Amino acid sequence: MDRKKLVEEVIRRLAETYPDADCTLDYDDAWKLLVSVRLAAQCTDARVNVVVQDLYARFPDVNALAEADPDEIEAIVRPCGLGRSKARDISACMRMLRDVYGGKVPDDFDALLSLPGVGRKSANLIMGDVFGKPAIVTDTHCIRLCNRIGLVDGIKEPKKVEMALWKIVPPEEGNLLCHRFVEHGRAVCTARTKPYCDRCCLEDICAKNI
Known about the structure:
The chain is an all-alpha fold.
């Protein structure tokens, strides 16, 4: 099976298995997703969802965070790890949103990349989840599963995996596919234990088993 046919079947089966897959970071505004995805680096989404409640109670909008002392932000977000660098990035990002974009998150990929602390993964998440535009989020689950399944061959660099997937994944499917990779990677095709291949909906087409 060539990779285009393989990805079509992967998309179909994962859609059946995880029909309600979505972003597991809680947010009700685009800027909050920017904050949460920065905090989620080397931290669980569940912990981020708890920590941001205190952050937004203290700083309820872009302007409040832009004006906040980074040390105050750090004191709240420290449980997410890497508190100093995350607080610095969040502070600088909110200031740029305020000063350059009128407090609004831009819907342009390159503009998102210009924001402090925002890389390709974060920018793609915003493009897909907030603005409904084609997006491929190459997080650790996506990279691991794509290599195991055979959608890419020994590629571990996120941008290279993203570029390879753009060639075979229909643009309208990329965002949801990546959310489903996360669900499947957490539940079945795990990183810290042996994958549960016996209950995997992709077992018979996965390169790991062929």
